Amino acid sequence: MTAVTTLGLAAVSGWFASERWIFSKYRGRKWLMDILLERIERTWDLPGFSHARKAWQKTSLSLRGCARLLGRWRSWIMCNDWESSLSDDGKDLEAGGLPWVAGAGEKAETSDTGRTRRKQALLSAMKTIHLQSTIIAPFITPGKKRVETTGADPGDIDSGKLVAEPVRAERSRLSLMKRKLGVLELTGDFEAHQALVRDAQFSEDGKFLITSSWDGTSIIWQTHPEHNLLSMYRVLVHPKSYVGQTVWSPDSTMLLTKHVRSVKLWTQHGVCHKTIDRQTNIRRVAWLPDGKAFLSVEENTVFRLDLLGKELDSYDFGMTTLHDAAVTTDGSRVWAVGVLSESPSKLHPSKSPVEKRLIVYNMQTKCIEYQIPILDDVRHVSISRKARLGRNGLLALISYEIQPPQLWKLYRVSDERNASASITRVRLLHTYLPRQTGVEFAGPGYFGGKDDELVLCASKGRDIHVWDRESGIYLRHIPAAGRSSDLMCMTWNPASENPFMFATGSHDGAVQLWSLSPTREVQEPSVMADG
User: In residue terms, where are the WD repeats (predicted)?
Assistant: First the structure.
């Protein structure tokens, strides 16, 4: 007994040690079971094992064929015996007579009563079918054999065609997407700022583009998608602090600029409407879908503020220090990313890295509905406002420090504790991998194209990578030709008139425009200061 216990303990210890070694070697990308399965597959591929496996497969096929033949032969013999046993009893059926059925007052036969009754019932059924076919047959006109359909035209029924139609449509869509991306070219390169461009964003209607730099200025560009025309419209001056983020309102009439400890509200014409001061550092800001309030992400708390700076509500995320947050399209939940700064007992990690988390927070119940620990350094999250996965599905793009972006699905399920309520769950759909190996990404990923059908992300090599959002297929690699500085930000024009236009901001302060045709010269802007 002691030997068995010792052997089991040694096996478990060896398994855990192997798991630890595999985790360190592959950096969490593979587990011990994956390695064992790979080794088994390689072993089966060896010459001796492969020949033995092929021989066993051939033997199995032969045995199955013999079994099928024996089954058919047995069925044929049983049918012949049954027909021969019915031949004598069926003479009255051929002569037009009816089988005898015992009356209620008569005594049944004592020998083979059950078998006789079964034969009589079968003969009666055969006679009924024979009579019905004799009566109905003259009224049936010959025609084509009926084919079971699924709502389609019988003349078009072709299983191969039905299966191939969705595949053909998907290939056509991807081919058209590649052709459109192939004609994108650099149509404008503007030395707009004196320092790195920290953020850039097109307005929802596609008429304006704003770029913010660490030189203390933000530039509002006016776009004309029908002519691919770009011109400077206003310059916003921030003499006291630089801008870390710029966000257009859902109706494109207002603009938020995030500073270290303040948020400024601007009109689309460059007039400063309100300056909202905060007591702590602001990580990110996000508009609510109605455009009447916004969220301010500050350390481990998200504050809900109106356009005058009044605190409407606050949402505590416990021990998690937030990096970014986005609001769902219905305004009921916050999708946040951050790190666990300390444990509930106030303990801090000494050697191990901090735990990163993806969190879904319900603003109505003020509680965390769902959270997932992850390995990579998560930085940004954005929710698609155009793409939908049914009535209860949303898409979120998660970006990391140097890893490729990932697409996650947010969906609702019924709450087991309350049948009338629903809770949110998340599931990973795609990890957008480049064709080259060893690519390190810089900055967040972005949705692009019509209905957010594309995903874009820049690498540290100054290249731009483009994927199809739905399938995860790599569509285009835009090389770093003409760029002498690293890309800091990127934004796609969501206007439906010209869905293939995007802008980038560089470390040297340049703003570049990519579109389908050349743009016109940049007009000199008028200068506006803080109000």
Answer: 190-231, 480-524
**Longest Cα–Cα distance in the chain:** 115
CATH no. for 172-343+352-529: 2.130.10.10
pLDDT at 201: 94
| 366, amino acid identity | K
Answer yes or no: is pLDDT of 95 > 50. Answer: no
Residue 259: partners with Cβ closer than 8 Å, 6 or more residues away: 238, 241, 242, 243, 244, 282
* DSSP of 320-366: EEEEEEEE-TTSSEEEEEEEE-S-TT----SSSPPEEEEEEEETTTT
Name the H helices within 341-452.
Answer: none
Q: State the DSSP H helix or E strand holding residue 64, giving kind and residue range, or none if neither.
A: helix 47-87
Q: Which two tokens stand for residue 77?
A: 């013999």
Average model confidence (pLDDT) across the chain: 78
The larger pLDDT score, comparing residue 183 to residue 166, is at 183
pLDDT for residue 25? 77
**How many residues belong to the chain?**
531
How far is it, in rounded angstroms, from Cα 231 to Cα 210? Answer: 11
The domain locations on the chain are: 172-343+352-529
